[in-house]
Amino acid sequence: MNPIIDEITQEQLKPERDQFKVGDGVRVHQRIREGNKERVQVFAGVVIARKGHGIHETFTVRRSQMGVGVEKVFPVNSPVIEKVEVDRESITMRARMYYLRSRIGKAANAVKEKRVYMATRGGAK
Predict the structure, then answer these.
(1) Is 26 left (phi over 0), alpha (psi -120 to 50) or beta?
(2) Average pLDDT, the chain
(3) Which uninterrupted H or E stretch holds 10?
(4) What H or E segment, with its residue span, contains residue 33?
(5) What does pTM read for this prediction?
(6) CB of 60 within 8 A of CB of 20?
(7) In Å, what is the CA distance from 17 to each residue of 68, 84, 116, 119?
(8) Residue range 74-107, pLDDT digits in tens
């Protein structure tokens, strides 16, 4: 890639947004502009895909709302996104979780969760 373009895109990258992976439950805080007002809207769901690299990287979040699946694609480095919170971490064996599209009800959000064991309880890993 051209070194000038590389230098410009490095300024636009937001490394603090790389803290989530496919399968995690996230809450995306997005700034919405309506006329001359601005507000923050939260979109919560499961990350089913991450695509691209560098400045062009995107991630897809899916949630089920009133029995209808809703998906949104967000650019990772967008200035419109204020923050991405991780609600729950998961253990996945795939790079894309498109099979969640065919699931209905509770099964649509069923992803193997990462368990955290406390050392004082002596839980098995």
Answers:
(1) beta
(2) 84
(3) helix 3-12
(4) strand 25-34
(5) 0.79
(6) no
(7) 28, 7, 22, 29
(8) 999 888 999 999 998 888 888 888 888 888 777 7
